[in-house]
Amino acid sequence: MQDAILAAMKDAVLKAAVATRSVHASTAIDGVSKDDKSPVTVADWASQAVVSLELARAGHGAIPLVGEEEAATLRAPESAALRARVVEAVGRALGPVGEDAVLTAIDRGRATPGARFFTLDPVDGTKGFLRRQQYAISLALIEQGNVVAGVVGCPNLPAAGTNYDEADALGTLAWATRGGGAFGCAGDQTSRARRLSIAPWSAGSPVRACESVESGHSKQDLSAELLAELGSPGTPARLDSQSKYVVVARGGADAYLRLPTKKDYREKIWDHAAGALVASESGARVCDVDGKPLDFSQGRELTTNRGVFAGHPDAVALLVEAFRRRGL
Question: How many CB atoms lie within 10 A of CB 26?
Answer without folding.
Answer: 12
